[in-house]
Specification:
Layout lengths: L4 E4 H6 L1 H11 L3 E5 L2 E6 L2 H35 L4
Length: 83
């Protein structure tokens, strides 16, 4: 991910349509700040969709990994193998 452009919320309000055009058509990332602190980020729709899908997949892989670790520990315990 590219480093986002940082703009204050007042400017984001005035330029919102342009911000959306930049993210949608140019792949830009924009961090919106309030009183110098991050308040939100506008990201390209494709990036968001891909990232959301990857998060779902990552959660599933972590769940499967935890199950495999439990099964492995149970098998080691049943076989009397010390770790």
């Amino acid at each position: 991910m590219k480093k986002p452009e940082t703009i204050p919320v007042e400017r984001a309000r005035k330029e919102f349509a342009d911000l959306l055009d930049g993210t949608q058509h140019k792949g830009q990332f924009v961090e919106i700040t309030r009183r110098g602190k991050a308040a939100g980020v506008v990201v390209p729709p494709d990036w968001f969709g891909n990232t959301a899908a990857e998060q779902v997949e990552l959660r599933e892989l972590r769940r499967e990994n935890a199950e495999l670790r439990r099964e492995n520990a149970e098998l080691r315990n049943a076989a009397g193998v010390d770790e």
